[in-house]
Amino acid sequence: MSNKSLRLIQGLGDQMAAGHEARAGESDHASLKLWLRLLACSTQIETEIRRRLRGQFGTTLPRFDYLAQLHRHPEGLRMNELSRHLMVTGGSITGLTDQLETEGYVQREPAPGDRRAFLLRLTPAGRMAFEHMAAAHEGWVVELLGGLNHNERHTLHGLLGRLRVTMADRTEPPESTP
């Protein structure tokens, strides 16, 4: 990628980050500013990952996430389990399943002991395609976070982990779906 392209992407990222963070003024609480900074960083990374998945693989982040869940569960998942893992509706899962089955990436099998349910699994072609995408995805994340040195990444990871632990004491557990 050329230096000009990198500067353009950096400029767009700065504008996106400023969009979220510009809402916080000097008198706003530091925690609000931190929240907006976290949101801006997350949004910026997700936007770039979505762009790269679309450009390099002609796919979407929801499709990538769907394939990732099935890759993590080679024994297969029922549609309702996959829906819970992805935190989306059953209708969304049905639509993606139809598309990915047509493309030869996913197969439906009758679920043992329940004639009404299906077990979803990656086909060998689906597994190979996902593993190719996942390797690229990992490289992109490494690249996008490459502006931080090892110690900075380690410190940030530790601080965000500590934040998750302290938030668990202040939040209610997520509702489980029936």
Question: What report would you give on this structure?
Answer:
With 178 residues, the protein is mostly helical. The chain has helices spanning 3-21, 30-57, 61-72, 79-86, 90-102, 124-144, 150-168, and strands at residues 77-78, 106-111, 114-122. The chain has a three-stranded antiparallel beta sheet with strand order 1-3-2. Helix 2 (30-57) crosses helix 6 (124-144), helix 3 crosses helix 6 and helix 4 (79-86) packs across helix 5 (90-102). It is globular, with a radius of gyration of 20 Å. 11% of the residues are buried. The model has no long low-confidence stretch (mean pLDDT 87).
Number of strands: 3
Task: Tell me the CATH topology of the domain at 58-167.
Answer: Arc Repressor Mutant, subunit A
CATH class of the domain at 58-167: Mainly Alpha
- The radius of gyration over CA amounts to 20 Å
Count of helical segments?
7
**Sheet having the most strands:** 3 strands, antiparallel
N-to-C span: 48 Å
Under the CATH scheme, the architecture of the domain at 58-167 is Orthogonal Bundle
| Shape category | globular
**Overall helicity:** 55-70%
Percentage of residues in strands: 5-15%
Q: What's the mean pLDDT score?
A: 87
Q: Which residue ranges are poorly predicted, with pLDDT under 50 across at least 5 consecutive positions? A: none
Tell me the structural class: mainly alpha
Name of the CATH superfamily of the domain at 58-167: Winged helix-like DNA-binding domain superfamily/Winged helix DNA-binding domain
Q: What's the order of the H and E elements?
A: HHHEHHEEHH
User: Reading side by side through the largest sheet, how are the strands ordered?
Assistant: 1-3-2
